[in-house]
Specification:
By secondary structure, this protein is α/β, with parallel strands linked by helices. It is 35% helix and 25% strand. It has 12 helices and 18 strands. The chain is elongated and about 75 Å long. The two termini are 34 Å apart.
Length: 384
């Protein structure tokens, strides 16, 4: 299968590698995973992936010569538009063809299809690649042509598109939001859960010990997990409970999925809090003071000092409670100077918690929006 990544291809690739041993970034910018078969429900599979915006089914077994593409492409469109009574198609290329070349291809296909008695129209606006929202709404037969090595191309058809409205509903319509503590995007929460568990979902509970407004808890419930959540602030736990109740009703979650939330300082987590069920620890650590500009060295040290104490206290409390191989995926803050230099704290923490049995299981991943001063560094750990 072929996957169109979101704005952070490295994060998207790592997420898919939790499901596929062969997933790799293609030269065209897409992700190819040969060992992922066509999903029985492509939309349901895509809905679980935070870092993928579109799933594409290959039309042919591997790359084909570009010189042989047109007759194969025409034959596919003739068959699909006739069988499904569709009258619309779209063509997309990576890298994107110039408008003149795209116009020639689109008009030739339209003419040949009409000569065959198929009233076909293309949905490409101004002879550019089709906007994803337009492709999803039109339900057109949407084709991708991806430049491969030499004179070869990969070709595929769109199977599923990211449900933008559903994400917006989860992000902005929930009853409790608090920008003061930062708001983890639902897509990133999904990706972090997938990094922790991949396909190994049976009987596992997701525990977020810094649950805030409950974004990770809601996403985990939507993915079919039981959840535990705790936070030091009673107000945040109450808000997270409201969001969980709202999400259950808004998205029709199965009643048998359990959600238990409680007030607890992360440095005081005890065995009775986490129980004996298999856990995956997924959470966004406290990111520190919100900033509107990069702090000077002295202020940054003032910000980092209590964070370091909090993080180390949390890991010290958690270490004796977890069985070996328990996965942890946690978002640490990093500070961005002049849009490029990363000032990190996670590397210091990881070095200090190694004697407790925590080891990094993968390279760090970085997530930040343009102009952000505080980004998120995603660290994957396991108990050894």
């Amino acid at each position: 299968m072929i996957f169109i990544p979101g704005k952070n291809p490295e994060l998207s690739l790592t997420e898919l590698q939790a499901f596929s041993s062969t997933a790799q970034l293609h030269q065209s910018g897409v992700i190819v995973a040969g060992d992922i078969p066509k999903p029985s429900d492509a939309q349901a599979f895509l809905n679980r992936l935070g870092g993928v915006v579109e799933i594409i089914e290959p039309l042919f077994d591997g790359p084909i010569d570009e010189s042989t593409l047109y007759p194969l492409l025409y034959a596919h469109l003739e068959k699909e538009l006739t069988a499904q009574a569709k009258g619309a198609f779209g063509i997309n290329t990576l890298p994107q063809k110039k408008p003149e070349a795209m116009k020639s291809l689109l008009e030739m296909l339209k003419k040949d299809l009409r000569d065959a008695g198929i009233k076909a129209n293309f949905i490409n606006n101004k002879f550019q690649n089709v906007h994803r929202l337009n492709a999803a709404e039109s339900r057109a037969e949407n084709i991708w042509i991806l430049e491969d090595e030499g004179e070869k191309v990969l070709a595929g058809r769109s199977l599923a598109y990211q449900d933008v409205e559903r994400y917006a509903q989860r992000d902005y319509k929930k009853p409790f939001r608090d920008a003061r503590v930062g708001m983890l995007p639902p897509k990133l929460a999904q990706t972090m859960i997938n990094l922790a568990v991949g396909e190994n979902t049976a009987g596992r509970t997701i525990y977020d010990p810094f649950c805030g407004s409950g974004t990770i808890l809601v996403e985990a419930l939507l993915m079919g997990f039981n959840v535990l959540g705790s936070d030091v602030e009673e107000r945040m736990v109450g808000g997270a409970e409201k969001n969980v109740v709202w999400a259950r009703e808004a998205f029709g979650m199965p009643a048998e999925l359990s959600a238990r939330l409680f007030v607890r300082d992360a440095r005081e987590i005890a065995k009775e809090d986490v129980g004996s069920e298999p856990l995956a620890i997924v959470g966004e650590l406290h990111l520190g003071k919100p900033l509107t500009r990069f702090p000077g060295r002295g202020l940054l040290e003032v910000i980092q000092r209590p964070l370091l104490e909090l993080y180390l206290g949390f890991f010290e409390a958690l270490a004796p409670l977890l069985p070996k191989q328990t996965p942890l995926v946690l978002a640490f803050p990093f500070w961005i100077r002049r849009g490029k230099t990363h000032i990190r704290i996670a590397d210091t923490v990881c070095e200090k918690i190694r004697p407790l049995g925590f080891e990094q299981s993968a390279a760090p991943l970085f997530y930040a929006r343009p102009q952000q001063i505080v980004g998120r560094e995603i660290i994957q750990l396991a108990i050894r």
